[in-house]
User: Fold these one by one.
Assistant:
Number 1:
Amino acid sequence: MVMRFGETKLAGAFEIQSELRTDERGYFARIFCEEEFQKQGINFHIRQVNRSFNTVKGTLRGFHFQKPPKWEAKCMTALLGAFFVAIVDLRPNSPTFKQWISVELSAEKKNMLLVPVGCANAFQTLEDNSEMLYFMSELYSPEHQSGINYKDPDIGVMWPLEPTVVSPKDVALPMLRELL
């Protein structure tokens, strides 16, 4: 089995594609292999696994992250449907500080996205009944949870759809300049 790691413009953020082994039963694919991550220089240990199910196309969640010392990396994949996922670099010493990228994750493409420590992520569903699986490098810590408003003009993400559902908590998130 082979996992292909495609670098993005944000250091440490990778789009990952697993090789599918197919036969008359369907397919088999590896979605995590610590050894293959380490070959890419990625030290990722799974501490928690989360699922997110979203019923309505256009649902927007994020930008979410945990503050130090509970920074977390995430490896995300779509189980059902499709997602527009955005990552913003919050690492002050990074050459891509405050820059963002996006990747479309879908059950059809069977791709994954590694969000490195020091970055926040948000996503918007591109289909009804979309489900995401997250592998987390850190345990959830309510006192360290934080986020940035998805409308932050200094980040300037161009969401593909008008948001249909956004939680009141996410609407109330501060702009990045308020956190710095």
Number 2:
Amino acid sequence: MERVRILTLEIGCNKTIRGFTLIEILVVLLIIGIASSLLVLNAGLSDSVSTNKKSFENTFNHLAEESIITGNPIGWYANNEADLIYILDYDLDQIDQLQNHKSPWDKFINNNKSFKFFDGSIIDLESNTQQVPLLIFYPSGENSGGTLSIYHSSFILETTINTNGTIETKAIKY
């Protein structure tokens, strides 16, 4: 026991510390504040991504169901400002426009958008003036397929519409 006391005195640790300094407390509070603000910002971003993901999935699922119910092919047309839906005949000519569909498209007017067909060709929707459907939904439940990309400031929202009717959406960070 005597030996331990001598070692303590030799290194100068006989002073007991009874708390934290003000600077230590402020640094810890600053770190906690920065970490919590980053979590809140990322949570808000993930909420908007998941909402947008569901809205596009709902739109494309609705178009597939509409095609099956009506027995007609349905074409989805889009450019940077709007998306339009037409009932098509079997020669893929427009018969009638569907007026009452809820579209998430107006949320993305300020974002760059592109559509990639499964053959590899890409259309930049900002400069798209063609009157060609980007997606065609058939009464059999199939569709022409492709990938819709919407470019945000920190990520790309990609919605892939597979020809068998499955829809996959993912956010890719830059």
Number 3:
Amino acid sequence: MLKRRYTIVVAESSGLERKVRVSLGPVLMVVSAVVTLPVLIGLGAAWKAKGDVAALYENQRALELENSNFRQATAALSGQIESLQAAVTDLGARSALEPGLAKAMANLPAFVKATAMGGGGSARAPKVGASYAATLAALTSPDDTFGLLRTLLEGLESRLSLVKQSVDRVDALAAATPSIWPAHGWLSSPMGYRTDPVNGTSGDYHSGLDIAGERGQPVYATAAGTVTFADTQGAYGKLIVISHGYGLETRYGHLQSFLVKQNEQVQRGDVIGRVGSTGRSTGNHLHYEVLANGTLLNPLRLLTNQKPRDQ
């Protein structure tokens, strides 16, 4: 059927006729091509659009994942920064010593301070980076930026850790420094050479302070420490000895009674006994001594204007 030929006759006004013979197959092929080509073009465009939309969805998912990672990284960095701010605030509050106590600590022997601070040298903080400018210039992506920020914050945390260690040591030494008056009353005899109050002979060396007061008045620990002795000992009478660490020791003699026992932990200002006149004594008073590695210190160098709390 497709092989059939048709004759098309075209008559002109002049009376001439033109005849064109056409075959059905080629005509149908041309018509089919004209009809099919737009459909194929449309299908191709639809497939391309579908691919573009899929790529957009893939890019969107990648961006959402990246944004989620950035939000997590930002939250982690914010947490680190808040933690550092809290640490700085805490260290600032803890490092502020009462002026009198700071002065007493300054009057401690050098070896006591060196022992408390861990030796003569100070620890150095690790280096965070050799050149921040070079590092910043090398940043090419947000990941690099977050990585640098994390490195900087970790470096600051390391430095703050070292500062905290130093503050902890200062706090510990401050707690161990005998700085308050051990009893209410008046200074009846300072440290040094004097006339012996019992037999009146000259040249007697007094190893501490005598603080006169009424019998039974409270006696206070002048710093935090451990009671190493609470018993009667010769001329001291009833004696309490407290070890404060770093080689520091305080002694409280001529007591009427004990309110602590051996190995008990005490804090500065705790009542440990009562004023009395036991041992070699001429009246009610407290005999108070301070020693550093067994060597007597003048307690007046360490005493501040802070009085023991009333009971």
Number 4:
Amino acid sequence: MSATSQLTTFSDLFTDLQNRTREATGVTATENQAKRYINIALHDMHLGTDYKFPWAERNAVIVTQAQYTTGTVSVTKGDTALTGSGTAWNTNNEFTVKNMRANGKVRIAGALNPYTISSVSSDTAAVLSSKFTETTVSGETYVYYEDEYDLASDFLRPLDMQRFSDQVAIDLISRTEFRRRYPANSVPSRPSVACIIDYAPSGNTTPIRRVKFHAPPSTNMTIPYSYITANLAVSTTGTALTSMSATTDEPIVPLRYRHAILYHALYNWYRDKKDDARADSAKSDYTDVMLRVMGDVEIGANRPQLRPRMQGYARRAQRPWSGSRGRRYDVNGRFDRMED
């Protein structure tokens, strides 16, 4: 760390925190505490405000899968085994995606009640997630489709809380509203509505977030979307990280704002470990910096504008000279002042 440069790396931040609190550096226990306070401050800095920070915005694309109807199926009432004939469920399509996958939906023999696929073991064998409750069928038609898709691995929340994709015009609604409006969601078409759903972690502690569309996509289509990332740090090799761990890791916060992380960590340190008035001073410094950060406006951003409704004023200005081809305005400034 240069003695004259802005705080840059994880090492810069936690070392400066120790220096400011007059703690000895090189002590493992104290250094670990300083590291934890810096990471807490980094995440807390984005809490509730990340949608306003351009550096936390990311873009991704979902490629939907076309409905699959090739071949026929057979299934016994009370069983979960789905048997295909002339099917290629475990074969990749043009997008290197299996024609049938776990979590996909299937409607059998024209019924509107869909079943969820639990697993696919071969081109002609799959397992339903629940037992088949209809009459046993053999050699019947079916429609397989997918209405749920994985989001980016670092997806935290949508950038726009009301629109999932502007380019494809897909509105975003709550899970409760989605379930109320589309309980079956079983007829593939062009999607126009979406909701974000959460599944329990599988194999690790990372929550699984997916997007669910109505109507389920009936064809292959590209759906671009914007979101806020959960990865707030980056390694020297460019690997995105949720928190900093190596001394050379850096926060995604622009260099000119990184001292705000230190101020917030300093406030927490004084409050929790010292319990003295310096916590209020550090908090004041942090608040001041954050207000200036939030006040920064990027080029091209919207600014408040006054847009009076001119049509009524124009009519009033014209009225005394209704025969005139053009608009005539008063000469004493009443129209310019938007007065009656």
